[in-house]
Design a protein that fits this description.
About 25% of the residues lie in helices and about 30% in strands. The protein has about 180 residues and is α+β, with helices and mostly antiparallel strands. It has a single domain, classed as Alpha-Beta Complex (Peptide Deformylase), CATH 3.90.45. The protein binds zinc ion.
Length: about 180
């Protein structure tokens, strides 16, 4: 089993837009397997290639024991609104209440090169939007309200400088903080 180090906020690779994948081959399948192993080791429910320092347009996920890989994904349609306390393996220890579209239709390819479409909402929909953001160099902190940003500033700076994460905290949209 091969696993990667997960890149933490402040690492420039997390801000770069990924390149579309042109070759779906055995090497890519191995990368996806290693990314899933890395994700399970943490554990997490989604991991995008830039989070392990790889500038390719794919992410892996496993929600409710359904693992998957999406290659060159795009959001085709989105609908509704849903507020949820979102976390990220690249921002350990911090959860932010963020409102995004609820339901999304995502199109991409699987490891056989077949086109797949997923119509998902709530946690599934959030997972897809979050991971897709990573492929465009966007972290969830770019979706924060001003009070959230203020409340998290010190912790985010510490994470960027020395990867230290304090106790787990949920930061609500109004900037109030609940520490575990
Ligand atoms: Zn993330």
């Amino acid at each position: 089993m091969a696993t990667f180090d997960i890149r933490i906020i402040g690492d420039p690779v997390l801000k770069q837009v990924t390149r579309p994948i042109t070759d779906i081959d055995g090497k890519l399948a191995q990368l996806a397997t290693d990314m899933l192993d890395t994700m399970y080791a943490v554990p997490g429910i989604g991991l995008a290639a830039p989070q392990v320092g790889i500038q390719k347009r794919l992410f892996v996920y496993d929600l409710h024991d359904t693992p998957g890989v999406l290659i060159n994904p795009e959001i085709v349609e989105s609908d509704g609104e849903w507020t949820y306390s979102e976390g990220c393996l690249s921002i350990p220890g911090l959860y932010f209440e963020i409102t995004r579209p609820d339901a999304v239709l995502v199109r991409g390819r699987d490891l056989d090169g077949n086109e797949i479409e997923l119509e998902v909402d709530e946690l599934w929909g959030r997972l897809m939007q979050h991971e897709l953001d990573h492929l465009d160099g966007t972290l969830m902190v770019e979706h924060l309200s001003d009070p959230q940003r203020k409340a998290a500033k010190k912790r985010l700076r510490e994470l960027m400088l020395d990867r230290t994460s304090g106790p787990t905290a949920v930061i609500r949209a109004d900037g109030s903080v609940e520490v575990d």
